[in-house]
Amino acid sequence: MxxxxxxxxxxxxxxxxxxPVDYEKLNTILRxxxxxxxxxxxxxxxxxxxxxxxxxxxxxxxxxxxxEIPTKLTGEPSISVEKKEERIFIKAGxxxxxxxxxxIIRRIEEVNNLRENxxxxxxxxxxxxxxxxxxxxxxxxxxxxxxxxxxxxxYSLKKIENDLDFLEITxxxxxxxx
Length: 178
Hints:
Low-confidence stretches: 1-10
Number of strands: 5
Mean pLDDT: 84
Order of helices and strands: EHHHHEEHHHEE
Distance between the termini: 40 Å
Strand content: 15-25%
Structural class: alpha+beta
Radius of gyration: 16 Å
Oligomer: single chain
């Protein structure tokens, strides 16, 4: 099915995928990422950071995408990873309910406004809260992404219809050359 397979275009792109995401597809996407020549050229630490962020993003897409709405109306989930100069850019988007999009944006802004030590403290606090009750993550993924990238998470929101938005996030990671 065209548009539903991973492809690895040239010119700095490691990965470009658009289509439905489930755990089987997550594994396929991760294999494609690992096999990309550009990914293999990253130093080990950068590669692990990029991989961890991509896993977190794909799991969030699986958990939170609005799958009951026809994709021609909403747009399909997407993820791309590319290198520009000495930075890696990970961009992902998916359709979510508007009220949930607002919650995600509040969490993004919360983690973006914290310095590294405060972020680590919040991560520790949320981990402990999650282990005490059956929580859905309480923003742990965004904290982890922010810690792994070292940069603020940027986002854009596009209204699709009354209660649906297409939320896109971009994460930057420095490419440390060893």
